[in-house]
Design a protein that fits this description.
- There is one protein chain.
- By secondary structure, the chain is α/β, with parallel strands linked by helices.
- It folds into two domains: 128 residues, ATPase, nucleotide binding domain (Nucleotidyltransferase, domain 5); 168 residues, ATPase, nucleotide binding domain (Nucleotidyltransferase, domain 5).
- Helices cover 41% and strands 18% of the residues.
- It has ten helices and ten strands.
- Helix 2 packs parallel to helix 3, helix 4 packs across helix 10 and helix 8 runs parallel beside helix 9.
- It is globular.
- The model has no long low-confidence stretch (mean pLDDT 95).
- The protein binds 5'-O-[(R)-(carboxyoxy)(hydroxy)phosphoryl]adenosine and zinc ion.
- Zinc ion binds next to helix 4.
Amino acid sequence: MTVLGLETSCDETSAAVVRDGMVLSSLVASQADLHARWGGVVPEVASRRHLERVLPVIDEALEAAGLRLGDLSGIAVTNRPGLAGALVVGVAAAKALAAAMDVALIGVNHLHGHLSAGAHAGGDLRPPYAALLVSGGHTELIYVTANTEYLCMGRTRDDAAGECLDKCARVMGLPYPGGPHVERLARAGRQGERPLPRAWLGDSLDFSFSGLKTAVLRRVEAGLEPARVPGLCAALQESVVDVLVRKSVRAATRAGVSHLVLGGGVTANRALVDAATQAGARAGVTVVAPPLDLCTDNAAMIALHGLKLLRAGLRDGLGLDVLASDPIPRMAHDWKPPSSASV
Ligand code: KG4
Ligand code: ZN
């Protein structure tokens, strides 16, 4: 089966072709430069650029895969969650092509796509598994049940981890998006910079990053010489990674699963992946993370997830709508892992 994936939920216009679980091509036209001067994504600007780029990007993805529209079995498109005006561009393109070519249309949840990228990296890992989804818009611990239902074990109560990194980077004078710059500068270590706080929230699997953001702002306001920026980046990354890793391994242990899947743009941070891999190994949990090009937003993850849905006989009609928000339901408080699993 050959699936074209489309992703336009935020500021990347992306198309990819996947055949039987193999990524044949993956094109990402990033808008980061366009939004950099505003320090964040401007929704109307994003929609307009998606409109200009979506068809050329589809053409390029098909050409790179050596295929034509007529070779497709289905078109998978992100229809939730995201910026409504941005989502609608990809969904309209997918509907028009699916109708014209008479192929299956499959709406994909962006978050499920991120997790499928991680599971793909784990050799098409099958659920149940625990997952950390960590990006600019989300920070969630998710239990994916044996029936591929998604249950939220914990999520951020304020900022997402990527949002915190981006905002802290901004106050330190670094370009948008800040996450990759924080990682690059953090490589030299903390260099005597004092550690920053971590919000543990008792034994909850929820997160909070707003206090950390304020702590960075206070240090900048108190006077931050340029020479101290790398050390502050290292302290910031240490705090974020420490909380993400400890809670993720705890979630996997509570869920009684052997695998933890990482997904989302912040997973591009190799300090996070290395720390999670080591902490997981100590707890008997195998950590799988996507390759770098499948961490940040891309259409290959949407095509990979769409292919799974198509194989399961799921498809959508031309009435497919977009949803700006589609939260993963919370796991019940009295939830217990299936009896065969060890806790
Ligand atoms: O998944 P993604 O591309 O878009 C959303 O769905 O939000 O994630 C983008 C986020 C941004 O906050 C960006 O700063 C962060 O991922 N990011 C990183 C790295 N690369 C991207 N954060 C830390 N280290 C990185 N290397
Ligand atoms: Zn994303």
